[in-house]
Every structure is written in C-alpha cells, then in structure tokens.
Model the fold of this input.
Amino acid sequence: MPTSKDVARLAGVSQSTVSYVMSGRRPISEKTRKRVEDAMAQLAFQPNAGARALASRRSQVIGLAIPFVPDLHRGSMMGFISVIAASARQSDYDILLVTDDEGPQGLERVVGQQLVDGLIIMQVEGDDARVPVIRNLPVPSVLIGIPEKHEGLKCIDADFELAGQMCVEELAKLGHETVTLVNWQDAVVRRRVNYVKRFHHGVDKAGAATGAKIIHVPGRATIAGMEKAVANALEQTKGVPAFIAPEAANQDLLVEALNNLGLVLGKDVSVVVNCSDSLAERQRIPLTTIDFEPDQVSRRVVQMIVHDLTEPTSRSHEALELIRPVFKHRKSTIRPRPQR
Done:
C-alpha cells in the first residue's frame, strides 16, 4: 500500500508538502499541488483518515442527528439519509449517524470527542431539546425543520404551508367544493413537528380563499380505522369528494379504504398523496402527488453545512430556506361532474 513518502518521492517534494496539500493548512502553489495530486492518483494513494484528522484537526465527518421514532415511516427517512450521505461523500465528507439514545448529550459527546466537524439535525420538533445544546456547540449546524424559536439558527425545509395551499387550490380549480385532509399518524402529531402545523395552515388558508369546505380527519394505522374516518368525511361532503394524504404512511390505507367503499380513483373521487414519482406511476391508477422535494432538501442541507465548514469567514449565523414543492396531476384526480 503506497504511503505519503511514496507520493513525495514521485512528486519530487517533501513529505510535509504532501501533508499540507491534504490538510490545506498552508498555502501551496497550484503547480506543486497538481504534482502531488497527480502522484496520489498514479499511486492510487488513500490518505489515512486518522493521520489526516490529526494533521488538519478535522475529522471530515458530519454528524447526522436523527431520532428513530416508533411508527415513523422509515422508508422516507432512509431516502433522506442515502441522499445526504452521497452528497457529503461528493464533498469528501463522511456521515456519522447520531441517534437519540443519549438525548442531546449525544451531540455534546460527538463534538467534544472531535468525532464530527459539524451537525445536520433532522426531525426537528417545535420545542426541540437539542436546540439549546447546538446553540452552544463550537461547530456549525444546520436543521432540517424549523423549531418555534429559530432565531440565530440555520434551517432548511420544504415549504409545507405552500404545499397545503397548492393541494387545495388545484382541487378547487377542478371544481371540488369539499376537501378532506387526512392528518399525519398520531406518532408524528404527538412529536409536535411543526411541518404538520404549517401544512394545515396552508390547507385552511386556501380553503378560505377558494371557498372550499375543509374537513380534517385523523390519520389511522389500520384499514378499519381509515374506512371509518373516510366514511365520516363522505357524510359531510358536498359534491364529488376529494382527499389529501400528505403522509406516505397513510397513502395505501386511504386508497384501500376508498376502494372498499366502492369509490374509484379518478372517477368517483379525487386523491392527492405524497410519494415518489416512480411509486405514483406504478399504481393501477397513477396517483396525483404533492412532492416535498426531499432529495433537493437533502442535497441543499449538505451544501449549506459544507459551505460553513470550508468557508468559515463567510458563514452566516442565521438562515431560513424553504424548498418549493411540486404538484403533479395524474389520473387519481378528476373534474367533478356538474351538479344538477
């Protein structure tokens, strides 16, 4: 296995120069840097992570703090994790998962032991106990989600309020007079993540603006529970019914409940769900979707934390960035027949 000595010999420089090229701790001419990098490529040299960390005082690792909550839709979480990890790797960073087994003290531990250079915080609650801790940590952090008190923090999220508005406005354009919102599962609602509140606000705001009646029903974890919730909503519905299911965990239950009640998507009822394009288009009746753009959120959060790590002098200490959702019409939404 080639060493830094081998690289130095091939590049015609000192071993310390190779170290400076890898760590960036001293300015090196572009010509010398290229010779060293060419030698590293020719030898297929991989720097020792521990040695590089000692030399640069950086671990080249970003901590990803994510609570694994029972009943949380794991597929969507893994989507975030995979894109974040791939994006970080493109910037020469690795990802260390930090679960909530230790509580906020786990963040203090990984930073105190210099295991990570910065933090990405996921599944942020309104009064998240991690927020006071990260405010006092000596490393940069970016939150996916928006706590109630976000002053002085860097946050990014999908624009859930706009997503709620878009769903109701698009359904109202089709002529629907009543729109039913199927809420997130209870496990999510109990955690008081405020994207739920923001989506609700957007739905209610658009309902008031368009004149559409908004019915709220709780998310249900069983088909029997979902059928009951849907039946109750149908009793209050005027005209052709329309349903919005923004949580992926409710999608299959809602579609099955409507089928069991004799309603055909795209013919008797309109349905808007949150799922990937590939999943929506694989359904027997392709589903109209509201896409919260999780991949874009994931890529952007990595860009933000990497910028703060590599350009500390230009780092802002507060930012709030909202990613615009995308509404895509497919065959599960219809134009209601005129009422006679």
User: Anything to note?
Assistant: The chain has a mean pLDDT of 88.
